[in-house]
Amino acid sequence: MTKRTTSPFSYDIVGSFLRPDKLKAARTAFEADEITQAELTKVEDEAIIDLINKQEAAGLKAVTDGEFRRSWWHLDFFWGLQGVEFTIPEHGYFFHGEETRP
After folding, report:
1. How many Å from the N-terminal Cα to the C-terminal Cα in the chain?
2. Is 70 left (phi over 0), alpha (psi -120 to 50) or beta?
3. Cα–Cα distances in Å, from 23 out to 2, 64, 69, 70?
4. What DSSP line would sit under 68-95, residue for residue?
5. Which residues contact 28 (CB under 8 A, 6 or more apart)?
6. Mean model confidence pLDDT for the chain
7. Phi and psi for 77 in degrees, rounded to 5?
8. Distance CA 21, CA 26 (A)
9. Which residues contact 35 (CB under 8 A, 6 or more apart)?
């Protein structure tokens, strides 16, 4: 029997990371008109720099901004397509007993 010297698994960094609480709070405050776009951008910048530092410390050769400036990973893309109309539905998505924002 041959002894394996390398892992049989491979991986790729997709680019999307969970947002830190400070960034989630800033987005909520921005949506409630409690902070300006510039203030939100400052929080995003800080969160992105922190994430890049963590990725570099982990030894990643390619790093990402975590998609921290995106609202929805899929809808931001769809709204950029020609012929796709932006609407705000009455309800958000329902998932595991929770409702997302519409």
Report:
1. 56
2. beta
3. 49, 16, 10, 12
4. TT-S-TTHHHHHTSTTPPP---SS--EE
5. none
6. 88
7. -70, -50
8. 9
9. 26, 29
pTM over 0.90: no
Instruction: Convert the pLDDT of each residue in 37-71 to its tens digit.
Output: 999 999 999 999 999 999 999 998 889 999 999 87
Q: Distance (Å, rounded) from C-alpha 14 to C-alpha 73?
A: 12
Can you state the percent helix, strand and coil of the chain, rounding each to 5?
35, 5, 60
**pLDDT higher at 1 or 53:** 53
Return the closest-CA partner of residue 17 out of 68, 73, 66. 66
